[in-house]
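Re: export button greyed out
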Amino acid sequence: MSEALAAVGTAGTDSSVPAVSGARQFWRRLRAQRAALGAAAVVALLVLVALAAPLLTALEGQDPTTYHPALVDSARGGVPIGSFGGIGADHWLGVEPQTGRDMFARLVYGARVSLGVALAATMIQVAIGVAAGVAAALGNRWVDQLLSRATDVIVSMPLMIMALALLAIVPSSFPRPVLVTLVIGLIGWGTIAKIVRAQTLSLKGLDYVSAARLSGWGTWRVARRELLPGLAAPVITYAALLVPTNISVEAALSFLGVGVKPPTPSWGQMLTAADVWYQAAPQYLLLPAGALFVTVLALTVLGDGVRTALDPRAASRLRVGTGRKDAAAQKGAAQDTAAQDSAAQESAATGKEASA
Amino acid sequence: MSGFGGFLLRRAAGTVVTLLAISVIVYVVFYVTPGNVAQITCGPRCSPEQVHQVAEQLKLGDPLYVRYWHFLQGLFVGQDFSTGTSVEHCAAPCLGQSYQTGQQVLDIILAKLPVSVSLVLGAMVLWLLLGIGTGVLSAWRRGRLSERVLTAVTLAGTATPVFVIGLVLMIVVCGELQLLPFPQYVNFSDDPEQWAWNLLLPWLSLALIEAASFARLTRAAMLETLAEDHIRTFRAYGVAERSVVGRHALRGALAPVIALNANNVGSAIGGAVLTETLFGLPGIGQELVHAVKVVDLPVVVGMVLVTGFFVVLANAVADVLYAVADRRVVLA
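Workaround output, generated via the alternate export path:
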């Protein structure tokens, strides 16, 4: 703790000296952003809730799949009995219309699905994207042509459309959350491959990489020891921004009725029928919608914070980080790519689909 | 100038190659699935005889490259289908036939396309106006309260899934306030005014989300351009701030915005699927969701190809526009 304070304390004076390690500098810059810190806290809380879902529902004494027909008014089409959708001591957030399943339990188990699918899909996207990008940049002309074309193709296929189509042909016996994860992961790696290829190409020309190659290191060793550390910043940045996108995609697919299917709860799926019930059971609409909103917002703000912490130009606008002079010195060569860079990152940050 | 012509040629060739590659991948992925292709293509309710007939029609006995060749032939010169009793001609570009409705896939898509095009194009006008306007404004007002409010609103916009904002808009505007009736698609040619009124909410749902990403990008690009030397020169010459921001800086910021717009055509098509499903608009998105649910494979494959075609086309057009905006691209 005192170490951290000292780091922040001296940040203003010696920040341009690269004496601190990359990781420590990253944490320092992330901590300097209040919004990102708040978002990180929210994300941590959400992850905790997802992990502790069985514990929380045990505390409540409910589970996400049991029907409670006695708690809904079948004469009125299945409206939950009681005020605000049947909120009470037994059912903390009320029950679902028609089925009477416990809302709190479905919501916290839904967090598991949302976060689990999004994180796992992001890992697949990053693994494929980094592999394809590095291989394209280091391979010979044909390897590069082949991989770059493949990347163009994958970028050209609208993610939602492809995901919908792929979900059609896989037998329904396949576990749905795993399938959704695979589909999102296998389609959404195009942009990260493009970023990694461009970054690897520019690193390849640097002296320290040339030195390693000239000293007789193999391609694999150069890639692992010299290039991957240089790729960490853009990859982490982009991956952080992919997570909220993947959450939205999973929710959208489940909302359309082709993603995660009942009885497994998912926030998107809960919203499928919500418009019919909004007057009788407003919490049925508001809870999953709010959960989605808060989760995607927190992850987006955190992703922005990570980008700012890793980007020397953006960091210059913070109180810590490199000074304004460095930013000015970086112009020129950086300027041309900067616009495209920020275009790619911005669309990653905000597009409902990664690279569409 | 030959440089620019060459650039156009290279770009066109690249587009064709990408489209062909997409068709190969789509074909292989969908017709070489591990399951029984004839059964999947025909649909779950087909009798064994029908499945057998489909297997004959798809020429499942032939090697894969021969089948793909026939598929390509269908795309470019058309194809004949035997339906057992009669022979039906499917004119180019032939995307095959739905075995569940008996209709040709292209006809299904063409019938639904006007709805989706109305939705996406109308929303695009809105999101470009809203997004670029908000971005310019917040770059201009940097550091003031209004900029913070705009930034917060756009951030919230990027974090809201399109179907959530659509649901909320529908419930508030149509349900609670009853300002508009629940949207019902009306053909533009039948009644342009009703067409616009009924599409207003779907347009807004789709545009608000996309506009947020444009606002963020425009703002970032504007701030980058505003820090450049030529802008300082303009200011030093006493050019009015309004003109510096609104004309000179905006020009420099437009290139990445064009690139993002092409990028977002794909995500907008995805958003259109959600919007159409939510508002019950009979477009290709709704049709695709239906085709996926009943596993009408030829329709699904046709939709993937057609939407991929639009995205590739949009990217190519954007590249050319980008090159027009910034000639340095041509030399690269």
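The mean pLDDT of chain B is 81. The button fix ships in the next patch.
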